[in-house]
Specification:
- The protein is of the alpha/beta class.
- The chain has two domains: 130 residues, 3-Layer(aba) Sandwich (Rossmann fold); 40 residues.
- It is built from five helices and five strands.
- The chain has a five-stranded parallel sheet with strand order 2-1-3-4-5, sandwiched between helices.
- Strand 1, helix 1 and strand 2 form a beta-alpha-beta unit.
- Helix 1 crosses helix 4.
- The longest helix has 37 residues.
- The protein starts with 5 loop residues before the first strand and ends with a helix.
Length: 176
């Protein structure tokens, strides 16, 4: 018997209704889906979040009505999942329910799934679970790596400038 793929579903409060429909549709396809909707009353949110994101084979982020306002809980979900996937081996799949919503920066190099129908979204998620390499298009991946290298160079230059300024300042103090 084949072990079902596990998906961690993340969404803003405003997108909870769609997330519930998506979670149900994934389960009908025998994809084990988990989201904060599955928390029992009184259950430790942080601990369960850590457990479920560690077990997940993919991270699906609903980007819709709640995209402009990112809550601390949502940021915590994202950080926890990324920490549990430090090798970046799991697909990160943004699902766009609103064409005008801004995709979070850590997902911009990922293949986004636009909402046409819940069944179509589930088809795309299922495909990306079976072919995780396709979740990051090569051109987007190359651009993301180049952007990251550029940001690191900028940080190095800034750090060197701070070090030089501190060195000059300590020299000024000694000469007084």
């Amino acid at each position: 018997m084949e072990i079902p793929m596990r998906v961690f579903l993340s969404f803003a409060h405003e997108d909870a209704q769609f997330a519930g429909r998506l979670e149900d549709a994934l389960r009908r396809r025998h994809i084990d889906a988990w989201s904060s909707l599955d928390l029992a009353a009184g259950e430790q949110w942080g601990q369960r979040l850590d457990q479920e994101s560690a077990k997940a084979d993919a991270f699906v982020v609903v980007v819709g009505a709640g995209a402009p306002v990112i809550s601390p809980d949502l940021e915590s979900e994202w950080r926890t999942f990324l920490r549990n996937d430090w090798e970046s081996s799991k697909p990160l799949i943004p699902v766009l329910t609103d064409a005008t919503a801004e995709i979070p920066s850590f997902l911009r190099s990922r293949k986004a799934v636009a909402l046409t129908s819940v069944d179509r979204v589930v088809d795309e998620i299922e495909h990306l679970l079976k072919h995780p390499g396709e979740s990051t298009p090569p051109a987007a991946y190359a651009k993301a790596k180049a952007d990251q290298a550029h940001r690191l160079d900028e940080l190095k230059e800034f750090a060197l400038a701070l070090k030089e300024a501190a060195s000059n300042h300590s020299g000024d103090v000694e000469h007084r």
